[in-house]
Design brief:
Helix content: 40-55%
Strand content: 15-25%
Structural class: alpha/beta
Distance between the termini: 13 Å
Number of strands: 11
Order of helices and strands: EEEHEEHEEHEEHHEHEHHHHH
CATH class of the largest domain: Alpha Beta
CATH superfamily of the largest domain: 2-enoyl-CoA Hydratase, Chain A, domain 1
Strand order of the largest sheet: 1-2-3-4-6-8-11
Low-confidence stretches: none
């Protein structure tokens, strides 16, 4: 996959196979534009298809993770750096333009992150509002610095959480708490977000990168095929009935039970040692 500095973010590959996405417009509080979102969609798609990538991490720079859309830059996303995809009109100039822009780009970014089989982590270093909030909720794991603040608060402007945040909050908080969170325009501190279950861990700001890397390395060293199958099965289980969920995981087990990682896991158990998974990936590098 392409590595380097792109429109609105930098992308590096850390061992063992950790794609590190760093939003790099702190002067704009890492606000998003159409160009940035399209480049992110392309980069995440490349990561999905690249066997060198096992885990994806998203984080910000400065005092924000992402403070929402950068409305001032939407007209011309001249943020410097390289572009992964060609420019298109920003849209949102009419009702139809807003609908198409949301379905094709803004919502597609979070759909792309949720659809990727590889595990994803949001390292929330600062404020994560609306676009940044929904992106973080779309990840599988969320670690937050004590300086983080999370919320949608779109009703403060008479707007809607239009990038999937309402769906994700209902599933994470339940309907009553999601109603209160969104209708009362709440911005949660890191500790409040932890109590609500919106983040999995809170650390000091200077410990966020190390804590994120520790989790990413743990996930990257795990049996990748089984983990990716299990991730998809868990997401599917939230939508399926009992019988469909049983059939779905039976089909995936027919793959994982016959994979070399399963043989290695059983051998390591009998030999009382730590398993060495992912030989298939190392052979391809």
């Amino acid at each position: 996959m392409d590595i380097g500095e792109f429109t609105g973010f930098e992308l590096s590959l850390r061992n063992p196979g950790i794609a590190w996405f760093q939003f790099n417009t702190p002067e704009r509080l890492n606000g998003m534009t159409t160009r940035i979102k399209r480049d992110l969609i392309e980069a995440v798609t490349q990561a999905q298809m690249d066997n060198a990538v096992r885990v994806l991490v998203f984080t910000g720079s400065g005092r924000a993770f992402c403070a929402g859309d950068d409305l001032k830059a939407y007209g011309s996303a001249e943020l410097g750096s390289n572009a992964l995809v060609p420019d298109i009109p920003p849209g949102h100039d009419s009702a139809l333009g807003t609908y198409n822009g949301l379905r094709t780009i803004s919502q597609q970014l979070n759909t792309c992150i949720r659809n990727i089989d590889k595990l994803t982590i949001a390292a929330i270093n600062g404020v994560a509002i609306q676009t940044g909030f929904s992106l973080a909720l779309s990840c599988d794991f969320r670690l937050a610095a004590t300086t983080a603040r999370l919320g949608s608060a779109t009703l403060r402007f008479g707007l809607l959480p239009d990038e999937g945040g309402q769906y994700l909050l209902v599933r994470m908080l339940g309907l009553p708490k999601a109603l209160e969170f969104l209708m009362r325009k709440k911005i949660a501190s890191a500790e409040e977000a932890l109590a609500l279950g919106l983040v999995t861990e809170v650390v000091e700001p200077d410990q966020l990168e190390a804590a994120t890397m520790a989790l990413a390395e743990e996930l990257a060293d795990g049996p990748q095929v089984s983990m990716r199958l299990l991730k998809r099965s868990l997401y599917n289980a939230a939508e399926l009935d009992w019988h469909a969920a049983l059939d779905e995981i039976a089909a995936k087990t027919a793959i994982s039970d016959h994979h070399p990682d399963a043989r290695e896991g059983v051998s390591a158990f009998h030999e009382k040692r730590q398993p060495s998974f992912n030989t298939w990936l190392k052979d391809q590098s």
